[in-house]
Amino acid sequence: MNSEDCSATETSSLHLKRGQQNNATRLHFATYHEGSIQVPIPCAVVNVVFITILIIALVALSVGQYNCPGQYMSSVPPNSHVSSCSDDWIVYQGKCYLISKKTRNWTLAQNFCSKHGATLAVIDSEEDMIFLKQHVGRTEHWIGLKNEADQMWKWSNGKKFNNWFNLTGSENCAFLNSTEVSSTECEKNLHWICSKPSK
């Protein structure tokens, strides 16, 4: 909207509201200062409002990208290193998870994870447990929990299992599916889940 359009709009609206008036009355609505650009007040207000909205929109987009980076990752090239997780891995709460499509026994599955800088999945929280159960469905997947020679259950990272969830079964290697965490013979061929820190 240029100043001529604003003047025309101002003039026509004044005629509608107050009838025919002289130029002296119309000049009352425009502010003129010597040495400054002469812009009618309604145009100046429209310009200020428009620029303010633009600034707010830019700030909102910047804050949104900072607070919710996952929503803006589609523009990042696939080979850029946003985290230490590869394309096949799923990032969740500071960990990378790989859910296998093949089957192996517990030891070979653990060896596979080790080659990728990970271990069979160590599950630290209820949130992680729910997340993994949703991703594996009814299929049994090895996790990194093993009972060595009927001793104490330990995670594949060496930490002792503190029984924070119910583990069923009477064998030495643990697996999970969407309904339970149980144990079976370590030589059985199952899918598996690897985990490692995402940074």
CATH topology of the domain at 95-197: Mannose-Binding Protein A, Chain A
Q: Extract low-pLDDT stretches.
A: 6-30, 69-82
**Strand count:** 8
Separate helix tally: 5
Question: Cα-atom Rg, whole angstroms?
Answer: 33 Å
Specify the biggest β-sheet. Answer: 8 strands, mixed
SSE string, helices as H and strands as E: HHHEEHEHEEEEE
The N- and C-terminal alpha carbons lie at a distance of: 52 Å
Strand content: 15-25%
- The CATH homologous superfamily of the domain at 95-197: Mannose-Binding Protein A, subunit A
Instruction: Tell me the CATH architecture of the domain at 95-197.
Output: Roll
Mean pLDDT, as a whole number? Answer: 78
What shape does the CA trace take? rod-shaped
Q: Helix coverage percent of residues?
A: 25-40%
CATH class of the domain at 95-197: Alpha Beta
Provide the descriptors you would attach to this structure in a database record.
8-stranded mixed sheet; 199 residues; identical protein binding; single chain; Mannose-Binding Protein A, Chain A
